[in-house]
Write a structure and sequence with these properties.
By secondary structure, this protein is mainly alpha-helical. Among the domains are: 118 residues, no CATH class; 99 residues, no CATH class; 102 residues, no CATH class. The chain has a two-stranded antiparallel ribbon. A two-stranded parallel sheet has the order 3-6. It is extended.
Length: 480
C-alpha cells in the first residue's frame, strides 16, 4: 500500500513551530480506521508482486528448523546406528494445509518428460569414483573407460561401417518420422532413439517409441576452455565417430576444439572486443588496458585471444618499456612483452583461471627474471654511468676538506662498507651521526654516497622532508 501524503504545493498542510516548518513528510503513515478501532499503530501493506505466493506458502516447503544433537562416547558411537526414518519423523512438521492436501490425495509433484543427462568430458578425462583402495580404483577405471560419450562415438563408427536395416530403425520412430541412423544424429538427440545401459556401459537401439524424452548436457562455463568448445561442437555436429572427427572440418584436422568452432563460425566474432581494446588504448595506460584484457578473457570468452594479444600486446607492455629507461621513449622489447604476459598469468591465477586455457604465447621466464629491476635502480645506474667523473672528482675534493671528526666517521663507515662487500658480517652496518648545525654532516653524507657510487653500489639520500632532500644531489623523501 502506498500512503498518499500531499506536498504543500499540491495542497498538503504545513505549520510552523519554534521556527521549524513541518509538513506531511514528518507524519508517520497510518490507517485512521485501524488506529481508532484498535488504539494502536498498525501499518498496512499490500503485496502486489509475484513474491506474494512465496510469502504465503513458503512455510509449507521451508523444511524443518529442528536440530538434533546427541553426545556419544566412543563405545556408544560404535554401537549407535543412524535411524534416518526416525530422524525424519521426529523433525518433520506438517501444517494443516499440507495435511489436508495429502488426505485429499492431491499430487505433491508431477513430471511430463523423462530427462536424460549426458556426460561430457575431454579425451581420457572422464570422472571416476571409487572406494579409496587400489583394487577399487582399478575396477572403477576399467568400468568407466566407456562413457556415454565414448559409447556414442563407438555406435556411430559401427553404423558407418555396417548400417542397421530400416526395419530396426523404424522401431524407435513408430511411424512418426523417417528412420534415423546414428550417423544422422547429434549427441543431444541420441537418447531419443537409443538407450544407455549402466551395466554394459553401451548404447542400444530402442525397440519402441520413446515417447516424451528430454535430453541435456551438463552446463559448462566458457572459462573452462576446451571442455566448453567440445560442448558447442557436440550441439552442432551430427555423426561424429571420435573426438578427432569433431575437430575435422572439410578434411582438415584442427589442433583444438576451439579452432574447429572458429572455422565453423560457431563463436562470436571478436571485432567488438578488438574495438573495445582499441578505444581503451587511445585514452588509458598500459596497466588499465591489460586489466581490461584480463576481464575480456575471464568473462567475455573471445574466440581468438592470441590474435587480440598480437594486435594490442605492445600497448599492454608499454609501462614496462617505460620502466626500463625512466621517462625516455623506448620501443617495446621481448622482455617487456613477457613481463606483461607474466602479469596477465598471475592475475588470471588469482581469479582461479589457467593461463594455458587461452592459447596465449608461452612465457619465457628467463626474460622475465632478467628484467625485474625497478625504475629507481635503472635511473641510478644511468646517472652513475653518465656522471662518474664528476662523482670521483667530488669525492677527492671532499676528502681534502674533512676535519678530524668527519675523517673519523668517513673512515669508520667506509671500512664497514668494504668489509661487508667481502662478506664479513661481524661489523655493524647502521650508523647514527649527530652533531650541531653547520658542522659538516651534509658534506659527510654526500661524500659517503659518492664513495658508494664509485664502487658501483647504489646509494640514495632519503630525507624526512622535501626541504632537507634538496640539499643532496638526486635526494628524495623517504616516501618517494
Amino acid at each position: 500500500m502506498t500512503y498518499r501524503r500531499r506536498a504543500p504545493i499540491d495542497g498538503g498542510r504545513e505549520f510552523k513551530k519554534n521556527g521549524v516548518i513541518f509538513d506531511n513528510r514528518h507524519v508517520v503513515p497510518y490507517n485512521p480506521f485501524l488506529l481508532l478501532k484498535y488504539e494502536c499503530h498498525i501499518n498496512v501493506e499490500i503485496s502486489t508482486s509475484l513474491n506474494t505466493i512465496k510469502y504465503l506458502f513458503k512455510y509449507l516447503f521451508k523444511g524443518d528448523d529442528l536440530m538434533s544433537v546427541r553426545l556419544l562416547t566412543t563405545e556408544q558411537k560404535e554401537k549407535h546406528k543412524l535411524d534416518e526414518v526416525a530422524r525424519f519423523l521426529d523433525t518433520r512438521f506438517i501444517t494443516p494445509d499440507s495435511a489436508g492436501w495429502g488426505l485429499a490425495a492431491f499430487k505433491m509433484h508431477d513430471f511430463s518428460h523423462t530427462v536424460t543427462r549426458l556426460t561430457l568430458h575431454l579425451p581420457g578425462l572422464q570422472r571416476v569414483l571409487h572406494q579409496g583402495t587400489l583394487d577399487s580404483a582399478v575396477t572403477a577405471l576399467e568400468r568407466n573407460s566407456s562413457t556415454q560419450l565414448t559409447s556414442y562415438f563407438a555406435v556411430v563408427a559401427a553404423e558407418i561401417r555396417s548400417p542397421l536395416p530400416n526395419k530396426t530403425l523404424l522401431l524407435a520412430t513408430k511411424g512418426r518420422g523417417e528412420p534415423t541412423p546414428a550417423p544422422n544424429l547429434s549427441y543431444l538427440d541420441f537418447p531419443l532413439y537409443y538407450t544407455f545401459s549402466q551395466v554394459t556401459r553401451t548404447w542400444s537401439r530402442r525397440k519402441r517409441y520413446a515417447g516424451k524424452v528430454a535430453t541435456r548436457m551438463f552446463v559448462v562455463s566458457p572459462t573452462q576452455g576446451e571442455l566448453y568448445y567440445l560442448r558447442v561442437l557436440l550441439n552442432h555436429t551430427k555423426g561424429a565417430a571420435s573426438f578427432e572427427a569433431l575437430r575435422t572440418i572439410d578434411g582438415v584436422l584442427h589442433p583444438t576444439f576451439q579452432s574447429a568452432c572458429i572455422v565453423l563460425g560457431l563463436l562470436q566474432h571478436d571485432a567488438e572486443w578488438a574495438q573495445c581494446l582499441r578505444d581503451a588504448s587511445d585514452i588509458k595506460g598500459a596497466a588499465a588496458v591489460r586489466s581490461l584484457f584480463i576481464v575480456l578473457l575471464a568473462f567475455c570468452t573471445p574466440s581468438d585471444p592470441l590474435k587480440l594479444w598480437s594486435q594490442f600486446g605492445d600497448f599492454m607492455s608499454e609501462d614496462y618499456a617505460y620502466q626500463r629507461r625512466g621517462n625516455a621513449r623506448q620501443d617495446v622489447s621481448d622482455s617487456d612483452r613477457h613481463r606483461a604476459l607474466s602479469n596477465i598469468r598471475n592475475t588470471l591465477a588469482e581469479r582461479g583461471l589457467q593461463y594455458t586455457d587461452f592459447n596465449l604465447p608461452l612465457i619465457n621466464n628467463d626474460l622475465v627474471q632478467s628484467d625485474i629491476k625497478t625504475t629507481l635502480v635503472r635511473k641510478e645506474e644511468d646517472y652513475m654511468t653518465e656522471h662518474m667523473s664528476e662523482i670521483q672528482s667530488f669525492l677527492q675534493n671532499s676528502q681534502h676538506t674533512f676535519n678530524r671528526e668527519q675523517k673519523l666517521a668517513f673512515d669508520t663507515i667506509t671500512n664497514t662498507l668494504d668489509s661487508k662487500s667481502e662478506n664479513d658480517s661481524s661489523q655493524p652496518n647502521i650508523f647514527f651521526v649527530n652533531a650541531s648545525a653547520g658542522t659538516g654532516k651534509t658534506t659527510l653524507a654526500k661524500a659517503l654516497i659518492a664513495y658508494a657510487q664509485t664502487n658501483s653500489d647504489i646509494a640514495v639520500a632519503c630525507a624526512s622532508s622535501g626541504l632537507a632532500a634538496i640539499l643532496y644531489t638526486r635526494g628524495t623523501t623517504t616516501f618517494l
